[in-house]
Design a protein that fits this description.
Serine Threonine Protein Phosphatase 5, Tetratricopeptide repeat
Length: about 475
């Protein structure tokens, strides 16, 4: 593990939890930007290239404030549904009809932030800052963007100035502390959070961050108290439960750690603003997809040489699941006994949450000597995601009898053994999985967690680093590596 001076657990929070002040939907006439809600929202930023265009058609007309408000209402609804690309298009249409409207500009800036387009978000919030230099919320939003851009000194200046202008909320103090962490000034971060506690502005996030800082400096009892304080404010705080999991891991109490990680996963389901933290292999998922495990089901690249199948596969690969489903259903009518089509239909229904239908399609393919292993693996994944480890074990063992070199099946079988407490066997199976397919970053991350729990920290760090090398966008190994 890194030295206590680097605060590895907190640094990830600094990268991931910075958020914007939300702009509450409004049907009233425009008001100065100090009117919108002060609630900070942490984000799941989606990176995209500058060349990528939003899909909603832009409408260029003369100034039409009422039309702009109509488009803003549509955009606000898209934001509530977390359809940020559509929201961006609607806000852009609104801005074409009423250039300079501060609420529309702020809303569009927030959406760009959510999409990871920090340059455009910066341009909008910078314009608003020039118009309203004394508005604390505008400064705070611009500070959040600057922090995402790695410009922590400017972020600190903007956050600090926003508090001087009267914006004193837990979110501001929390993100100010995170910005100090970005400059590797953990003492300053802790001082900011302790000040917030003294001002009675503590939040579950602030207490959790203080707990992580204490954990990193070896103050285990103090860390435990902070995490417990966080849970008093929010009993479902995934940050606090995750912190307690690491606390128990430091004490060598793996069962308690796994229990806390399960609670963290449950909290993540209830709080769309909290990003994924650690993932302990084998934490039981009582709902399909609750820990994103169902996403590990496998699709099969087509070997039918027609354009229709290739098009369906490309839609699946692009994540256009509804369109892909329609294409594969058409293919099923033409090739009703094709096991590849059955496997991919199951995959698509699983992505839509229709697990019973997915299982029916996989069961239709299990007898196939070539593709049956994939179908059995997917049936095992669905059983594991629902917490049925006995059935999952049977399916995955059958998958490996049919396809003895299917790396995904070894990884999923390892998760079953971890879930039932057999960490030695889980470790061997994860190792077998990455030997067969070195790019399986999730398996490497989970293997690293087991090695870390066994006190093999150097080996664990190597697995986290390899996981990041093969999939730099996977959050967990970054967090676990610190």
């Amino acid at each position: 593990m890194k030295s206590s001076e680097t605060y590895p657990f907190c640094i990830l929070v600094a990268v991931s939890l910075l958020g914007l002040v939300s702009c509450a939907p409004s049907s009233t006439s425009p008001t100065p930007p100090s009117k919108p809600s002060t609630a900070g929202a942490t984000s799941h930023a989606v990176q995209r290239s500058q060349a990528q265009q939003y899909t909603t058609t832009r409408i260029v007309k003369k100034e039409n404030p009422q039309g702009a408000r109509n488009w803003k209402t549509i955009a606000d609804q898209y934001v509530k549904q977390r359809k940020f690309r559509k929201a961006a298009g609607a806000y852009e249409n609104a801005l074409q009809l009423h250039k300079g409207d501060h609420e529309i500009m702020a809303g569009l800036g927030s959406v760009y932030f959510q999409l990871g387009d920090f340059e455009k978000a910066s341009q909008l919030f910078s314009q608003l800052r020039r118009r309203f230099p004394q508005d604390g919320k505008t400064l705070y939003n611009l500070g959040a963007v600057r922090a995402k851009q790695g410009k922590f000194r400017e972020a600190i200046s903007l956050f600090t100035r926003s508090t001087e202008l009267g914006l004193r909320t837990p979110d501001v103090y929390h993100n100010l502390g995170l910005a100090y962490l970005g400059l590797e000034r953990p003492d300053s971060a802790v001082a900011v959070w302790e000040k917030a506690v003294g001002l009675k502005l503590a939040s579950a996030e602030i207490y959790s961050s203080l707990g992580l800082a204490s954990l990193d400096t070896g103050k285990l009892k103090e860390a435990q108290r902070y995490f417990q304080s966080a849970l008093k404010l929010n009993s479902r705080s995934s940050d606090a439960h995750n912190g307690l999991a690491h606390y128990y891991l430091r004490l060598g109490k793996l069962p308690q750690a796994m229990e806390e990680w399960q609670k963290a996963l449950e909290g993540m389901r209830s709080d769309s603003n909290t990003i994924e933290k650690g993932f302990v292999p084998g934490s039981t998922a009582r709902e399909v997809g609750s820990d994103d495990r169902i996403s590990t089901v496998i699709g099969i690249r087509p070997n039918i040489g027609d354009n229709m199948y290739q098009h369906a596969w490309e839609l699946l690969q692009d994540g256009s699941y509804d369109a892909a489903l329609q294409e594969f259903l058409r293919l099923e009518k033409l090739h009703p006994q094709d096991p590849q089509i059955a496997v991919n239909l199951g995959y698509l229904y699983a992505q839509k949450g229709e697990i019973s239908t997915a299982r029916e399609h996989w069961e239709n393919a299990v007898e196939d000597k070539v593709n049956g292993g994939v179908a059995l693996n997917n049936l095992g994944v669905s059983a594991l995601a629902q917490g049925d480890t006995t059935t999952a074990l049977q399916y995955l063992q059958s998958a490996l009898r049919v396809s003895p070199r299917l790396a995904d099946a070894y990884s999923n079988l390892a998760s079953v053994h971890a879930e039932t407490g057999d960490l030695e066997q889980a470790s061997k199976l994860y190792q077998k999985a990455v030997d067969l397919d070195p790019t399986l970053s999730r398996a490497r991350n989970n293997l690293g967690l087991i090695l870390e729990a066994q006190g093999k920290e150097d080996a664990a760090m190597q697995q986290y680093e390899k996981a990041i090398e093969y999939n730099p966008h996977l959050t967990n190994p970054h967090y676990n590596l610190g």
